[in-house]
Write a structure and sequence with these properties.
CATH class of one domain: Alpha Beta
CATH topology of one domain: Rossmann fold
CATH superfamily of one domain: P-loop containing nucleotide triphosphate hydrolases
Largest sheet: 7 strands, mixed
Length: 234
């Protein structure tokens, strides 16, 4: 099943002159697929991630996520759709320092009608990522890898169709980064699509496919080195 579909996507910004960040991008991402988007700084990766994450709309063309085209949605409608179908994991974690690990994971569900159910799901997710003994710890009591795993648990609390990650291992050592990537593999096994923006070829080697974005144009996508049996970008 296709969970992300971009068709002839153009994104332009006005800053005294028209800047075309994306130039007619087309791609599809299947449920349970791990896709890496790579390219130099300024190539349009963050713009593309914002569009897939329903944080922005294209100037022209169509982006559908879990079948939803939110171009004509109000901000409130877009927020509602984003909450139910998209999860985010960022390089800088964005945990709230005054909340425990458990409370940080529950935050996206604060307005839900069943807080006890949300809290139990948060506990289950933290146990799954190996932090069952850190529920009451605050962010400054956690290592970088533990913070990132709290962020992953938080991103999954609403059972999204697609998980978007921006340089998810950029602040981590290799061993801790591998644990995070292993968790992404587990997520895809459950049918969630994972899309990561990265400069790290090692991260890209874990993906099922790599999309190369250069100057707002998407090159031919290809399997990652690991997927076709090669080494880690040797």
């Amino acid at each position: 099943m296709v969970v992300v579909e971009a068709t002839d996507v153009v994104k332009e910004y006005e800053s005294g002159e028209t800047v075309r960040a994306l130039k007619g991008v087309n791609f599809e991402i299947e449920a349970g697929e791990f896709v890496a988007i790579v390219g130099p700084s300024g190539s349009g990766k963050s713009t593309l991630l914002n569009l897939v994450g329903l944080l922005d709309t294209p100037t022209s063309g169509t982006v559908r996520v879990a079948g939803e085209d939110i171009e004509d949605h109000s901000d409130r409608e877009r927020t509602s759709v984003r909450k139910s179908v998209v999860g985010f994991v960022f390089q800088s974690y964005y945990l709230i320092p005054t909340l425990t690990a458990l409370e940080n994971v529950v935050v996206p569900c604060l307005l839900d009608r069943n807080p006890a159910e949300a809290e139990q799901r948060a506990v289950d997710l933290l146990e799954r990522v190996g932090l069952g003994d850190r529920l009451d710890h605050y962010p400054d009591e956690l290592s970088g890898g533990q913070k990132q795993r709290v962020a992953i648990a938080r991103s999954l609390i609403n059972e999204p169709d697609v998980l978007l990650t921006d340089e998810p291992t950029g602040n981590l050592d290799r061993e801790t980064g591998e644990r995070v990537l292993d968790e992404f593999d587990r997520v895809t096994d459950e049918g969630v699509a994972v899309v990561t923006v990265t400069h790290d070829e090692y991260v890209a080697s874990f993906a099922d496919r790599v999309l190369h974005l250069v100057d707002g144009e998407l090159g031919t996508d290809a399997p990652s080195v690991e997927a076709v049996g090669g080494g880690v970008f040797e």
